[in-house]
Records
---
Amino acid sequence: MNLQGRHFITLLDYKPEEIEYLIALSATLKKQKETGISHKHLPGKNVVLLFQKDSTRTRCAFEVGAFDLGMGATYLGPSGSQMGKKESIKDTARVLGRMYDGIEFRGYLHTDVEQLAEYAGVPVWNGLTDMYHPTQVLADFLTVQEEFGSLKGIKFSYVGDARNNMGNSLMIGCAKLGLNFTAVAPRELWPEKSLIDVCEKLAAESGGSLRFTENPVAGVTGADVVYTDVWVSMGEPKDVWHARIKQLHDYQVDSALMEHTAERAIFLHCLPAFHGMDTEVGTQIAQEFGEEYPRVAQGEMEVTNEVIESARSRVFPEAENRMHTIKAVMLATLGGHYE
Ligand code: CP
Ligand code: NVA
């Protein structure tokens, strides 16, 4: 498998066996890290990490991953570079591509990461756009594989805003790798019809399936994996909170909903999650909307604290897997030597 020189922008660009290879490589790198086997396969290389939006996991995964591979890493945050303000994406790509061996981009417009890829001349990795979050899916699938031993045939229910970057990317990933994907959301929050059509074809090829339902209980009954994400994503205006709570409060993942899943079911969330009063935004939303919508009165939104802290929850191993999987993407696309 040779992925040297490839961008990693959306899973749509990758064949199922290439995605499987990246997950397998992640597992190898994880084992090497755990057993203290050095894997500095890319000495002398440098990567730049461009963030128009905030990040904890993705930024740290790229930084630690780069260091573990022997590379240097530069972080450019939402402020502090010329990009987008005094300099176009196209010019930024042509400058950074001459200094760095790879570029990570987290931002708003998916067309921006595509433009970076077009002009950089080096691999560009999508660290999240409004449309897709492909590196997250690799970590999610590594976590599922660790739990169940394989991915094919896994019943994967995504509950919440199913047309955001996570809903889109998980649907693509499931369709490519033969999982049975269910989007559990009000109809107006289902993915775009055009993307569903593409994924239906992919699922037919892989032996997977897609299902869409507005009924939370029906949507998670028998599920092996229940996944949710924030109701309002980065970059959306604050004033959508009210409407989104109204649309999604019945889709909150709580212990009662988890009762309907398979006995072996796990809970996943890309994080960050609102599951209590210990965040600024969680507290603010609880104060503003808690009276009208009692489910959010304690700052619990897409998931309750009880579920996040339950024995079924794998959210922290999942977060750790961001690092192993992102490392695999950098190693494979930058073409280091490895076994
Ligand atoms: N899951 C994820 O992408 O987290 P960050 O926003 O912290 O990078
Ligand atoms: N849908 C979320 C994912 C965060 C990792 C967002 O875009 O904010």
---
Amino acid sequence: MTFKNEYLAKVYADVCKRNPNEPEFLQAVGEVLESLEPVVERRPDIVKAGVIDRLVEPERGIIFRVSWVDDAGNVQVNRGFRYQFNSAIGPYKGGIRLHPSVNASVIKFLGFEQIFKNSLTGLPIGGGKGGSDFDPKGKSDGEVMRFCQSFMTELCKHIGADTDVPAGDIGTGAREIGYMYGQYKRIRNEFTGVLTGKSISYGGSLARKEATGYGLCYFTQEMLAAAGKDFAGKTVVISGSGNVAIYAAEKATQLGAKVVAMSDSSGFIFDPAGVDLKVIKRLKEVERKRISEYPKEVPSATFTPGCSGIWGVKCDIALPCATQNEIDEESAKKLVANGCIAVAEGANMPSTPEAIAVFQSNGLLFGPAKAANAGGVATSALEMSQNSMRLSWTFEEVDAKLKDIMVNIYRNVAKAAADYGLEGNFAAGANIAGFLKVADAMMWQGVAY
Ligand code: NDP
Ligand code: 2IT
């Protein structure tokens, strides 16, 4: 990573020195700093206030042991993390990832990106992220419950409705949030909106489950409309088959597109007839099975093992909704060669910097994660509002607010890009617009932390 601006080069060199062996975190920081070059040149006050030097260092990081007993009576030990990155504009807010690949680098990249994403929503939420290297796959409900309880026994000392409000992410859905909420309540003896993504019966928001995927499509729709295009009649490929992927597929289909491929970490299905979401939902949400089961029930479909093959399926619109760095340069070139016109990121950092360069140099519309997938956390903030007011809005009310938020994010991102001479570069626009609000708040609040 090289910077024309000397100050940014120094900040980045310091971050590299202080965080060795954290490639995902350095990648996320590098991408943001690169976008801030025109801001730094125009805003010496931000440089003088040391805003960027402070922003790249988390306000606080908590690493803890999570021990629990499996069904066979053996003691298991995992590592838990919560990085409270930035609280300039609101309580720390961000999901909890449960996946064997979780380490400090992964949680720090996610926490860092969350600062800008949360700022873009226009709602009062700071940035944070947590997780553990616990793998929920193949575990019984009892094992997941005991892990979640042990995880929360430590985490509850550091969070609260006005301090830090975790939510779901990979491997953390309504089941895990429920077990964590129950434990928080038992220990703290308070019924507050300390977690979002709760089930509806005890304070969850309608439309939160759908929000990230729906919001991704609302953002994409806006980006397409500005270019005189829309979803109707388009072929869509969506990686993943989890929470984000399923509801992105549902909304894309409602908007008139045909979703022909979805995946999980073992491979992808191709269904030229358009995926049958009833089958996907049952397999994934109810039975917790592999996507390779789908062709056994739907004869028009085939299953191909391996993760990256999905990007070779011809499509007009690609929505990566699985995990970081899932689209590399080679996969990006395949999408371009097959005539893809738009890529919007449902997952966090799914495209490598080389892949983004391929999209941008070939004139594809590119919706970066911080903007395109912000609908999930935005609706979490709406869940927090409903919890504070002790009332609940209808599905239609929440969905309408979500749509409004996504349209505004698109407009603000497009405007920031244009204001800084980078018209159409929504990746830079998202970083700049998200940054400026947080920078302003940090300057008002003074230097001491
Ligand atoms: P889920 O756990 O519900 O689903 C994750 C999906 O991605 C599964 O299909 C999973 O397959 C696949 N996947 C996970 N890791 C890998 C990997 N290393 N290689 C290939 N496939 C993989 O998670 P979500 O849908 O909630 O999250 C998906 C992405 O969206 C993540 O990047 C997350 O950070 C991001 N996101 C989530 C939000 C939310 O509200 N949930 C909000 C904004 C962003 P398998 O089952 O085989 O592991
Ligand atoms: O990456 C994300 O924005 C999320 N996993 C959702 C976070 C939240 O607090 O709802």
